[in-house]
Structure formats: structure tokens, C-alpha cells
Design goal:
This protein is α/β, with parallel strands linked by helices. It has a single domain, classed as TIM Barrel, CATH 3.20.20. It contains twelve helices and nine strands. Strands 3-4-5-6-9 form a five-stranded parallel β-sheet. A two-stranded antiparallel ribbon has the order 1-2. A hairpin with a 2-residue loop joins strand 7 and strand 8.
């Protein structure tokens, strides 16, 4: 029987029979449906996924006219830090606009968190103004809420990750609540300043990385920004497919944050005032790429079916069905991208 080239979630090569490929697609969507309490993909959708994953071409694509826009996280960091190319942020933006034909781009500092940016906001405003004078495409400013930076020794608050193993649950919760309040103020300060400097939008990246308090700080910061600056454009990209309950008792609009999957995260982001939502579906490295793609499409489809705002699922480096590798194989990322657009009904990536 003919074998179909594919990959594992860690990027290693894999050859599957047609039956094995179909089985992985079905079990992948069933896993997402079970975890998220959502509907699985239909038989027709699974058949289309099979065609995408079994295509003999190394690179697959959508049909002309079905393309979607791209937004970026940590955009200006990837050339110099991950690619090893010695180019400044303006050069990175210009290369993506004029050579790579990017739809949007994002400027971020190497620390890539709101707290450290606050101390160098004057320099960041100058960089944004210079980039805006040269760029035509929309350019965002991006950073992470990153509540971990508010804990000792980087910040003034006791580390809840140390308090919890000691059984100091209440102290750990109070520390997270205190960090949440500090983060809201820092996020507002930086976002307001960058908006005044000409940023076309603010990207909240890796939201929820420190758990439910991290997500709450982001939601409340968005709410505060939208009240003060109604025209400000905000994109929110998540850190994981469900919210870690590091606190466990935090709520937003009477909804408990811990354990929320993508489609439930989306509903709260919309209420807060987010303009673009980026769901994240984690790639399992010990499962095949088709299994991960089917799973990702199931979650993204659940978001698209209820969303009132554009959905830009994260696709790359271990999320969205893409292998857990620094540089994603083009065969895998192209299949994941087409699937998220055609099956997940994503508005962008």
C-alpha cells in the first residue's frame, strides 16, 4: 500500500498509510471535541483534511481569492534573535513589507514584556515614530503581560510558584491579585504611550502564560484602554489552548477563568473589547501532524462559529498543528495553514 509522507509533532519524518492517516484525523478531532465540549469535524471536513494532508506536493495552498491576512507576534525579534541576521527593527519591518509582502507587522523590544518596556518608553516611542514614517503596512506594538516579572527577585511580590508548594495557598492567591493590579497599570501606560506615538495597534501576546491572573490582567487592561481610547486597535494572542488555574478563583464578568478553552476565552475577549483574537492550540510532539491539524481545526472552527471579531489562530513553532521546532517545515506549516483557513474558517493567521 502506498505510504503518505507526513511528520510527527516534533518535526521528524513519518510515513502513513491511508487508513492510518484517516484514523489520526478522526482521533484528533475527537480529542478536541471531548476536551472542549464542542462538536467534532464532519465527515466531509475530515475528507477535505485527508486531501490536504495526503497531497503529494511539498507545499500546498488555498485557491486564488481565498487568501487571508497575516499578523505577527514578536515580529522584529525573529530576524536578529532567532534567525541570527544582524538587522535592526526598521530594517526588519522594511524587509517584511517590501520583500516578504507581509500584510501587517509588529515591533517589540527584546525583553518583550510590558513591565520592562515602561522604563524605556521614550526610546520605544522614537523607534515607533521612525518606523511609521517609513512603513506603509499597519505596524503594531507588541508585548507580553508576563505576570512572572512582578515576582521576586525581578519584582516586589512573593513568587506564587514558590508559595504554592509550601501550602501557602491564600498567600499565593493574594500575590497574584497584587501582580494583576500592577500589570494593568503598566500595560495601560505602555499601550497609551505607543498609541500616541503612532502605533496602528497593540498586540497582547502570550496572554495567560502565568495563569488565570495573567488573563484577567489582560482583559481588564483592554477594558480600561477601550474606555480611555475607543479607537485603539487591540489584538490578543493566547499562550495555550486552556487557561491554567494558578489562582483558581478569579472571574471576569462572573465567568471563572481557570480551565477555559479557546472558544470560551474568545467570548470574554470580545466583551473586554478585543478587535482580533488569536486562539492557541498546543501541538503534541508524540502525535502526528495530521492528528494535531485535525485537533486545531476543531477548536478554531468552534471559535469561528461564534465569533463577532476576526480570528487569527497562532500557527507556528508548536501551535496550530505546526511541529514543535524553531523553524517550521514548509510542508507541515502549509498544510496546517490551508486547513485552518478552509476547515477552521480562520480570518487570518
Amino acid at each position: 500500500m502506498k505510504k503518505i509522507f507526513s511528520r510527527m509533532g516534533d518535526g521528524s519524518a513519518l510515513w502513513l498509510s491511508e487508513d492510518e492517516l484517516r484514523q489520526d484525523l478522526r482521533t484528533g478531532t475527537e480529542d478536541a471535541a471531548d476536551r472542549g465540549k464542542i462538536g467534532p469535524l464532519s465527515d466531509d471536513e475530515l475528507e477535505r483534511l485527508f486531501e490536504i494532508c495526503a497531497a503529494p506536493q511539498k507545499v500546498v495552498s488555498v485557491e486564488p481569492g481565498q487568501e487571508v491576512v497575516h499578523s505577527f507576534d514578536a515580529g522584529t525579534l525573529k530576524f536578529p534573535l532567532r534567525g541570527g541576521v544582524p538587522v535592526d527593527r526598521l530594517g526588519t519591518v522594511m524587509a517584511h513589507e517590501r520583500a516578504f509582502c507581509s500584510d501587517t507587522f509588529e515591533v517589540g523590544h527584546s525583553d518583550y514584556s510590558f513591565k520592562p518596556v515602561k522604563a524605556i518608553i521614550a526610546e520605544e516611542r522614537q523607534s515607533m515614530e521612525q518606523i511609521q514614517l517609513n512603513a506603509t503596512i499597519p505596524v503594531y506594538y507588541g508585548a507580553m503581560p508576563n505576570l512572572g516579572l512582578y515576582t521576586k527577585p525581578d519584582g516586589p511580590i512573593d513568587n506564587w510558584s514558590e508559595l504554592l508548594p509550601m501550602g501557602k495557598v491564600q498567600e499565593a492567591r493574594e500575590a497574584q491579585e497584587e501582580a494583576c493590579e500592577m500589570a494593568i497599570q503598566d500595560i495601560f501606560f505602555v499601550a497609551e504611550a505607543m498609541h500616541e506615538a503612532g502605533s496602528d495597534g497593540i498586540n497582547f501576546d502570550t496572554v495567560g502564560a502565568s495563569g488565570d491572573a495573567d488573563f484577567l490582567a489582560s482583559l481588564l487592561a483592554v477594558e480600561k484602554l477601550k474606555k480611555a481610547i475607543p479607537e485603539i486597535h487591540i489584538e490578543m494572542g493566547m499562550a495555550g489552548e486552556f487557561v491554567l488555574g494558578m489562582h483558581g478563583g478569579l472571574k471576569y464578568n462572573d465567568t471563572r477563568l481557570a480551565g477555559l478553552y479557546c472558544h470560551k476565552q474568545l467570548e470574554l475577549a470580545e466583551k473586554a473589547g478585543v478587535d482580533i483574537f488569536g486562539p492557541v492550540i498546543n501541538t503534541k510532539s508524540n502525535k502526528s501532524v495530521p492528528w494535531n491539524i485535525a485537533r486545531s481545526c476543531t477548536f478554531v472552527k468552534a471559535c469561528s462559529e461564534i465569533s463577532k471579531i476576526p480570528i487569527h489562530p497562532n500557527a507556528g513553532m508548536g501551535v496550530g498543528g505546526v511541529p514543535v521546532t524553531s523553524t517550521a517545515p514548509v510542508d507541515a506549516i502549509s498544510r496546517a495553514s490551508v486547513a485552518l483557513i478552509e476547515i477552521g474558517k480562520a480570518d487570518g493567521l
